[in-house]
Amino acid sequence: MTDDPDGFRRESRDRWERAAAGWAAQRPVVQAALQGVSAWLVEAIDPQPGHRVLELAAGPGDTGLLAAELIAPGGTLISTDGAEAMVDAARARAAELGVENVEFAAMDAEWIDLPTADVDGVLCRFGYMLLADPAAALRETRRVLRPGGRVALAAWTDPADNPWASVPMAELVRMGAADPPDPAQPGMFAFRDRARIEGLLREAGFTEVQVDQLDITLRYDDLDAWWDTQLDLSTGLRTAVGALAPAQRDELRDAIDPRLAEHVRDDGSVALPGRTHVAAASA
Ligand SMILES: C[S@@+](CC[C@H](N)C(=O)[O-])C[C@H]1O[C@@H](n2cnc3c(N)ncnc32)[C@H](O)[C@@H]1O
């Protein structure tokens, strides 16, 4: 829990509203790298025709939309996110795919606006660790699941496993242009310890808790393409880089690129490694 949860929630919602356009634009790149994560999560909730499935913090909605196909006929996906603009992005993606068994709602994952025992499965890819009170969100998740219903979530492992995200921040901190991230606060790496995920799931009352790891690869034509994607996805990075003088921006890239050089191939293309926890449990 943060020191100022309400202040954090306000700032976070505003930040994600502003991030939505970038997430919609980069959706194909993100999903190409994370397809395997989505597949693991969807399989873990075992969707069946007729099921009601809730996706929390859905962003542009890809993971839930995979499940929507499997719960037809008769089943409904409830695709939700705390940011209205993200819900709009998911709605647009569903229309593009022609998926019709979906309801969309702006909804905070800490206050799930659904009746008790209402859904068969809950999906949350890279959401819970960003919340002011993930324990509350997991208790809410269990409340809206029917007994025996399944939750599946993904959360990044250690920053060192994910240089595509951690190296720019580390270099900004080294240059004095950003504060060191506080591991106790909500954030991308707040669930880096497997034990935290397991503990939170058990404390929320879940059983049959399973936590695995998946390796992913992020592929780009070159490091410039990776950099542009990162700036599109991360408002924090965009703000920090935007505050730098042009010479400092060059200095930043000059510091970052050598740290990623081992992942650059002879033709300039890049294959950056990443690692995530994936977890599932029963209500
Ligand atoms: C890292 S993105 C992940 C998006 C998507 N699940 C994916 O894997 O591509 C995190 C998402 O969490 C959403 N989010 C952040 N705080 C939230 C909250 N309190 N309640 C619901 N959604 C939230 C953001 O708007 C954003 O769409």
List keywords for this structure.
283 residues; alpha/beta; seven-stranded mixed beta sheet; binds S-adenosylmethionine; 9 helices; Rossmann fold
Describe the overall structure.
The chain has 283 residues and is α/β, with parallel strands linked by helices. It has a domain at 5-158 and 185-217 and 274-282: Rossmann fold, CATH 3.40.50.150. It has 9 helices and 7 strands, in the order H-E-H-E-H-E-E-H-E-H-H-E-H-H-H-E. It has helices at 5-45, 62-71, 84-97, 134-144, 163-174, 194-203, 223-233, 235-242, 246-260, and strands at 52-55, 76-81, 102-106, 119-125, 145-156, 207-220, 270-282. The chain has a 7-stranded mixed beta sheet. Helix 1 runs parallel beside helix 3 (84-97). The two termini are 23 Å apart. The model has no long low-confidence stretch (mean pLDDT 97). Bound molecules: S-adenosylmethionine.
How would you summarize this macromolecular structure in one to three sentences?
This protein has 283 residues and is an alpha/beta fold. The chain has helices at 5-45, 62-71, 84-97, 134-144, 163-174, 194-203, 223-233, 235-242, 246-260, and strands at 52-55, 76-81, 102-106, 119-125, 145-156, 207-220, 270-282.
Give the secondary structure arrangement, pairings included.
Layout: H1 5-45, E1 52-55, H2 62-71, E2 76-81, H3 84-97, E3 102-106, E4 119-125, H4 134-144, E5 145-156, H5 163-174, H6 194-203, E6 207-220, H7 223-233, H8 235-242, H9 246-260, E7 270-282
Parallel strand pairs: 1-2, 1-4, 2-3, 4-5
Antiparallel strand pairs: 5-7, 6-7
Bound molecules: S-adenosylmethionine.
